[in-house]
Amino acid sequence: MWVTFNRPHRSNALTPGMISKLKALLEAHRSDPSVRVLVLTGKGKYFSSGMDLSAANQADMQQRVGTGTAGSDATLLWESLRTFPKPIIARINGPAMGGGWGLLFTTDIRLAVRSAEFSFSEVKRGIVPAIISAYVVPQLGPFHAKQLFLTGEKISAEKAQEIGFLSGVVDTEEELDRETLRYVRVVLGNGPGAMSHVKSAVQFVSTHAHPENLRYVQELFDAAVVTSPEALYGMACFMQKAQPDWTQFLREQAKL
After folding, report:
1. pTM
2. 62-72 as b/e, with b when 16 or more CB fall inside 10 Å?
3. Which of 109, 153, 209, 254 is 20 to 30 Å from 96 at the Cα level?
4. How far apart are CA 198 and CA 49, in angstroms?
5. Domains identified in the chain and CATH numbers
């Protein structure tokens, strides 16, 4: 089964509706014997630029924070992906930013074109990469995670492979298709029950996504990601295509 993020005009930014639909799709096919492997990709130049920070989606997100469902919606999707019993192959056709990159840490095999770039850009907008930290830190380690979270800098596909994030890097989309299909054929040749147990075993022995960790990052998401003055200021600057002046922001906050 192939799933394609299809908002190329918005760099495949994720909306609450997309999150709900993908979660429902995963649950519908979790026990479907006709689905043996899941391929995630994006249409156009981007894999995904992360959460949609447009004004409309900010309002929707703030409403969800008010009802306590914003963090839980994202957490449930990430957990649905992480615990999906079939292999998930990421066909990374272009840049993956913020939550778009974080989502990829729930996949099992990751292939990217050489032109793809990756960044956790949340801090540049005054946002905390809270929920995704539960998945990023165990895989990259605290050192790489903090460097990427704190700087928000982009890294190349080659660097992403160097730090252990990518399974392979290819030059063109044609090669990406060939390599993706090669992996599809490989996993289709394996026992589906055995692969499901392999995923469960790895998830069990790994230290990430323990319930107490998920509760903490979900609460942090609700408290700091959308409703804080810093996040609101950072997102407003983003919408205006302006560089945030954090020094001035802190001065203004000190007056309150």
Report:
1. 0.81
2. eebbeeeebbb
3. 209
4. 31
5. 2-255 (3.90.226.10)
